[in-house]
Each structure stands twice: as structure tokens, then as C-alpha cells.
Specification:
Glutaredoxin; alpha/beta; 5-stranded parallel sheet; Jelly Rolls; 29% helix; disordered N terminus; 17 helices; 4 domains
């Protein structure tokens, strides 16, 4: 969701991503929060507090009582009417750090309370106090109803989350080797989901003490200590998410108006437009908000951002925006299959249970294409990567790396990684970038002195030593006779295949390459028709046959599909004789 590197880009629409990019390049602790304390902790006037009273109830707490506790479901936003509260961090090994004290006129919450996520810090009453407690659903209503005040509150909630990320407050402690693919995976998962965490190298004195304390063996690494003190040994992403309370409680009996599979730009746009128009919405994704676009270090041709914005910042904004309007987010949740023989349709989940919805939106995007290279699997996250986030950039700092690919994703990665790596060797099968990459990226790459482009070149083999990847062998030598490049880091941007295998149980029409057929592609209907061959099921974004592989196009389809869903729901209501529902839906 959000990261400290994107603080200005996410929290303040008037500030560009330039400072965020500089922060990543510097690879140093970054914060502009010291100059924005007035925005992070604004004091409310008596008149403003009176406007908030209709959204909550006044409660009383005695000295020493906890208003909220790390790892426990947050009750919402507290508006302090009297007394003082101490906010402090407490991690899984019992360390406490004071974050601040707050008195009357201040409100206590961070962005996770829009959806009632577990608290990331403790809040304890220092003296008897009265406070207005606004639960998550009413907090969302407040932000929508009170435009100016809601904007100030929303900005504060976002900035506070960014501050907690900087401190690692309320998050797990990860212990392991920085080059361990499993540790890299967990770091990436937490970073992409905007969750605070801290990492201790396994050779550090504190790490050695904790490893001994918990009796951890080599096969137990990485070791994760959750905020409640529980210990996970080499956990999977779902196991870590469960420990942190990130997985939502899914009620099988609820029937949503819209279920969106995929939280990329297309899926998030659907969630924002549908939820803002009063439809009940749930979004499911197996990893993190943003999809492939979320891994883009910098997008410079998206309308309205002349200096560019990172994919993660863009996804972070949309993620919070969807929650603001009440969309439910189920991340990470893996959809196993779609069953559409009955109405409502049903999504079967890999973790068990199901989600029912009147309309299903397929926004599952694509999965990274894996070249046919012997032994590729054993290098995943251990020298071979399919995206370029700050986690990977830090691993290859001042080293020689290889990037394969000639599209925009590769171009964005090349520009970003060039600011970290000593040398960037780029392998492309074509004679140049012109047919596959935007001109601004081509010009940027040509200006970088440490980037070396090798046209008509391909990876032929991967070489290894005891530490992992050691070299990339070429299918044919370069003009100077070089037949391999010594490197420990290979970034592959060789295209993607549609993520549609989970549709096989439903009979949704697919083309020969597995992309979902819609509208004109399936029956000669309007090219704007996003309906699939199954009634009530729609497809948008990269998973759709004939789609334009651009973020703006995906967002446009996400907005357009909501209008079509309204028409379908209204027609269904008319057919079922539900006049009130039909009128409400515009029929």
C-alpha cells in the first residue's frame, strides 16, 4: 500500500514524487514528517468536535486503561475531550518506545482504522479521560460527509501510517540473511502492503541472542517475531498475514453486489467507482495492491502526474480511496475457482470458504512469463527477480546487474536500478527499443552512462556458485567476444501471460492465449462491452483479450464496467419484480 519512500506522493497530491525518488536513490532514512507535524497531529476546534459527535459515542476510560492495543482489532478513531493518552510502541520481544502524548482536541487513529485493522501501537490513558469513539464504518461516513474536515483527517491518518512504517512500529521483526530469497519475499510482501516491519541481520548480536532464545535452527530461517510475541519459522505470506491480522474475516453468508478479483489499477478503479456509488464491493488479491503496475518504480506518462509517480504510490492512493468509500479488501486471499452455474456467482478460496456476489469482475491481470532456462526455479528471489522494488535495489547496490526485456516495465526498471547498480547490462532480442518502449524511456536510458544495451542478445544459461547466481551465459557472444556476464542479479521483464487458470471451472470464454473474451471479441457487440460469455461476469485490464496494456486504459475500464454492472443489476431487479431496487439502480 504505502511506503516511506512515497510519503509526499501519496499523502499530498500537491507534492510530486521527485523527493520520493531521491530518497530511494539515497537509500538512507528518509522523512519529511518533521516539517508536517501540524498535518499529522492537527488540533480540532470545539466547533469541529461538535460536528463529529453525530458519528460516534462518548466513553470514559480510567488511568492505566488501554484505549487500543498492538495486534488487537482497532475500535476506530478516538477524539479526546479531556485527559491525556500516551501512545507507545511495543514489539514482540517486549521493547517499548514512546511515540507521543496527546490531549484534548486531538484525535487518535491511523489509516488502518478505516477498515478496522489491528492497532499498530498501544494507547494508554494517563489520567481519567473522556473521548468520542467513532467506529470504522462511521469514520468512513464522516470522511465522505465532512469534505474539508474529512480531508484533514484522511491526510493525518496516512501520514501517521508512514511515520509508523519509518519506525517499524507495531510490525513484525524479521531475522535472516539479506540475500535469502524467503526473507526478500516477506520484505517485499510487507512493503507492498504498507505494513511496518524491521529486519535484523542474522549475524547481528541481537539476532544471535534471539535465535538462541527461540532455539531456531538453519532450516527455521527466516525467523519472524510477531507483535504479540509469537514466533514464526520460515513462514509463508498467508501465515505471516494471519499472524498480523491482515486476513479479513470473510462471511460466507454475505452476498456482495460486486466481487473484484485482482487489486491492480483496473480492480482498484472498479472498487472506487462501485463503492462510491453505493454498491457493496469486495476486492480479492493474492499478494498486494497495485498488481504489476504497483511494482513500477516510476510511471511518467500517467495523466495528471507530470513529474511521475511510483506504481506503489499510485496503488496506495487508490487502495485508501476504495476503503474510504467502504470497499472491503481481502489481501492476501487466493481465489481458487469461479463457480457460476447458479446466481449469485461463487468464488472458491484456496484457504477455504467462498465469496458470493451478483457480479464478478475479472481483473486478475497477468503473471510474469518465465523463460525456459534450466535451473531457473532455484534462483527465484536468490538472484533472479521479476520486478524492481527498493528491496531488490538495495541488494544490488554498487554491483553489476543484468536486465532482460525491451518493454516499458523493463525501461522503468533500468532507469531506477541504474541509480543503484554500478553497471546495468540490458539484453534485448530486437535491434532496438523503438517498437516496444515509450520514447521518454528510450531517451532516458541513452543518457545513463552506466547502462549498456546489447541488441539481439538472449540469455542462454545461468551459472551458480555456493552463494547463488554467479553469471549469465549468452546464447551467442557479443561483438567483442563476450559470452557471459558476471552478475549475482538478473531481472527478467520478458512479458506476462494472463492469470486466468482459475476460470476453467466456470466456462468463461478465453482466446487461444488464455485472455478473456468480452463484448465485440465474443459476439460482435460494442467494443466497449466488458461482459464475458457468462452473464454477470465481466473482464477488465490486462486479463481481457484485446486490452491496451496501459495503466490509464485499465483505470478507464474499471470505471466503465461499473456502469454496465448497474445496468445488469437494474435489469435483474426488474425481472425479479423488485421495483424499489430497480429504481435505486436507475432502471
Amino acid at each position: 500500500m504505502l511506503s516511506t519512500q512515497e510519503i509526499d506522493a501519496v499523502a499530498d497530491p500537491d507534492v510530486t514524487a521527485v523527493d520520493a525518488t531521491r530518497a530511494v536513490v539515497a537509500d538512507a532514512p528518509f522523512s519529511s514528517l518533521s516539517t508536517r507535524m501540524h498535518q499529522m497531529f492537527p488540533a480540532l476546534t470545539c466547533a469541529e468536535i461538535d460536528r463529529l459527535r453525530r458519528f460516534g459515542e462518548v466513553g470514559h476510560w480510567e488511568a492505566g486503561e488501554l484505549l487500543f492495543e498492538t495486534g488487537h482489532t482497532g475500535p476506530g478513531m478516538f477524539v479526546l475531550l479531556s485527559g491525556r493518552v500516551k501512545v507507545y510502541q511495543r514489539d514482540g520481544i517486549g521493547r517499548e518506545v514512546l511515540i507521543g502524548e496527546h490531549g484534548a482536541g486531538h484525535f487518535l487513529a491511523e489509516v488502518g482504522q478505516l477498515s478496522g485493522r489491528p492497532a499498530l501501537v498501544n494507547g494508554m490513558a494517563l489520567a481519567p479521560l473522556d473521548a468520542l469513539l467513532i467506529p470504522p464504518d462511521r469514520l468512513r461516513a464522516l470522511i465522505v460527509a465532512e469534505a474539508e474536515l474529512g480531508e484533514r483527517i484522511m491526510r493525518a491518518l496516512i501520514l501517521r501510517r508512514v511515520s509508523l512504517i519509518e519506525k517499524g512500529a507495531g510490525g513484525p521483526i524479521l531475522i535472516g540473511n539479506s540475500s535469502d530469497s524467503r526473507l526478500v519475499m516477506l520484505q517485499g510482501f510487507l512493503s507492498r502492503n504498507g505494513h511496518p516491519h524491521s529486519v535484523i541481520d542474522e549475524r547481528d548480536e541481537d539476532a544471535l541472542r534471539l535465535i538462541e532464545q527461540f532455539g531456531a535452527q538453519r532450516e527455521d530461517m527466516p525467523l519472524v517475531i510477531c507483535p504479540d510475541g509469537s514466533v514464526l519459522r520460515h513462514p509463508s505470506m498467508p501465515e505471516l498475514a494471519t499472524c498480523l491480522g491482515l486476513l479479513p474475516d470473510l462471511d460466507d453468508s454475505v452476498v456482495y453486489d460486486v466481487a473484484v478479483v485482482g487489486a491492480g489499477p483496473a480492480g482498484l478503479a472498479t472498487a472506487v467507482y462501485a463503492a462510491s456509488e453505493g454498491l457493496s464491493v469486495i476486492v480479492l488479491d493474492s499478494r498486494a495492491p497495485g498488481g504489476q503496475a504497483g511494482a513500477s518504480s516510476r510511471i511518467e506518462n500517467y495523466l495528471g502526474f507530470p513529474t511521475g509517480i511510483s506504481g506503489q504510490a499510485l496503488a496506495g492512493r487508490a487502495f485508501v480511496q476504495a476503503q474510504k468509500f467502504g470497499a472491503h479488501m481481502a489481501i492476501p486471499v487466493h481465489v481458487k475457482a469461479l463457480h457460476c452455474a447458479e446466481s449469485p456467482h461463487r468464488l472458491e478460496l484456496k484457504c477455504g470458504g467462498h465469496i458470493s456476489a451478483r457480479a464478478i469482475v475479472i481483473a486478475s491481470g497477468a503473471v510474469y512469463r518465465r523463460p525456459a532456462l534450466a535451473g531457473l526455479d532455484k534462483f527465484d528471489g536468490r538472484g533472479v527477480y521479476y520486478w524492481a522494488s527498493p528491496v531488490e535495489a538495495k541488494l544490488c547496490k554498487r554491483q553489476q546487474i543484468v536486465v532482460v526485456g525491451g518493454g516499458n516495465s523493463a525501461g522503468q526498471a533500468i532507469v531506477y536500478l541504474a541509480s543503484h547498480a554500478a553497471k546495468v547490462h540490458v539484453l534485448i532480442r530486437r535491434t532496438g527499443f523503438e517498437a516496444t518502449m515509450s520514447r521518454y524511456l528510450i531517451d532516458r536510458i541513452r543518457s545513463l552512462p552506466n547502462v549498456f544495451v546489447h541488441p539481439q542478445s538472449e540469455v542462454g544459461r545461468l551459472e551458480a556458485d555456493d552463494s547463488g547466481l554467479s553469471a549469465v551465459g549468452l546464447k551467442k557472444p557479443l561483438p567483442d567476444g563476450t559470452d557471459h556476464i558476471d552478475t549475482r542479479h538478473l531481472f527478467l521483464f520478458t512479458g506476462a501471460d494472463p492469470n486466468t487458470d482459475w476460470l476453467r471451472t466456470c466456462g468463461v470464454g478465453l482466446d487461444a492465449n488464455g485472455f478473456v473474451l468480452t463484448g465485440s471479441a465474443s459476439d460482435g457487440a460494442s467494443a466497449c462491452d466488458l461482459a464475458t460469455t457468462v452473464e454477470g461476469v465481466y473482464a477488465i485490464g490486462d486479463a481481457r483479450a484485446g486490452s491496451t496494456k496501459r495503466v490509464a486504459a485499465a483505470v478507464g475500464e474499471g470505471a466503465a464496467v461499473v456502469a454496465q454492472i448497474h445496468q445488469m443489476l437494474a435489469a435483474t431487479a426488474v425481472a425479479e419484480g423488485d421495483v424499489a431496487a430497480a429504481v435505486a439502480l436507475g432502471a
